[in-house]
């Protein structure tokens, strides 16, 4: 067993779900709302969680979280919570369920539309300690939302916005690789590449944060070494544990910042909410890495060369050489994992590019990239990712 105290408390081990009831007790949560989705419920994981919560009175369940959480879903979940007089939240699922629960924790205690509290609207300081407490139980190994202070929600006007506050940090993260054993290969691959993208973008981000850099680089090494095994041998508990750690480490590291991969994937995901966030990150990584190869901080600190070494690609002589090797290796891994060959294979058409670019320029990750992208830069990255 490994209990880690970093930004929050994490229980990381096979069988960690057994800590759920004691976790509720430790934070005084007596009437939780369990936020999840229909797929997680169909997989039997809600029943497993409810069994562990046998000693907790009046557990309510909201199982209609969409693949990209919306303000409408947040309001629906809140109505269930209020009907059952809930006093806290358990998120069971992928990043969508965890982010939806974070949206509920805001809406339950703060007046007005969610957009008022969005980061790009200057709303972060308005999110207070009054938010409902949250326990996060991820069933995928990708988003890192269980150790993150942020959430992404599509608000009423259709924008896909970020919400960031230390008050949104889950009080407890229960990281149980057993919960990921039934995950289909395609979703294992997509969420795994999401974790890898988090580690890579956080490591490239220019902010000075050596602990986050160390966590990101180790997470990248673990994720890259195990994603293929976890995808092709879904019952391999050790590979699943390593991917869950890589996901958690990506979430810890991206407190430092992300960049253009996420500004693009957030925006395109808002334009077409049916697209999977992790898959989009996998598509954008090669083009963004190539763009970042000319960033002064990336070159000076040999960021790309160090990532290449962590991925077992050997010693690179320059950022440009590393960028090419990283991009080609990521594309090859995407093929090996059965992910799409590019945005076009996902049904994306060039006609939406102007909207995507506008959204990317306004995204909270845009200015965190090591090299500031223009509209033309984003257009080039989009075409290169087709």
From TrEMBL:
<feature type="domain" description="Fe-containing alcohol dehydrogenase-like C-terminal">
    <location>
        <begin position="188"/>
        <end position="385"/>
    </location>
</feature>
<dbReference type="GO" id="GO:0004022">
    <property type="term" value="F:alcohol dehydrogenase (NAD+) activity"/>
</dbReference>
<dbReference type="InterPro" id="IPR001670">
    <property type="entry name" value="ADH_Fe/GldA"/>
</dbReference>
<protein>
    <submittedName>
        <fullName>4-hydroxybutyrate dehydrogenase</fullName>
    </submittedName>
</protein>
<comment type="similarity">
    <text>Belongs to the iron-containing alcohol dehydrogenase family.</text>
</comment>
<keyword id="KW-0560">Oxidoreductase</keyword>
<dbReference type="Pfam" id="PF25137">
    <property type="entry name" value="ADH_Fe_C"/>
</dbReference>
<dbReference type="InterPro" id="IPR056798">
    <property type="entry name" value="ADH_Fe_C"/>
</dbReference>
<feature type="domain" description="Alcohol dehydrogenase iron-type/glycerol dehydrogenase GldA">
    <location>
        <begin position="12"/>
        <end position="177"/>
    </location>
</feature>
<dbReference type="GO" id="GO:0046872">
    <property type="term" value="F:metal ion binding"/>
</dbReference>
<dbReference type="Pfam" id="PF00465">
    <property type="entry name" value="Fe-ADH"/>
</dbReference>
<keyword id="KW-0520">NAD</keyword>
<dbReference type="InterPro" id="IPR039697">
    <property type="entry name" value="Alcohol_dehydrogenase_Fe"/>
</dbReference>
<dbReference type="InterPro" id="IPR018211">
    <property type="entry name" value="ADH_Fe_CS"/>
</dbReference>
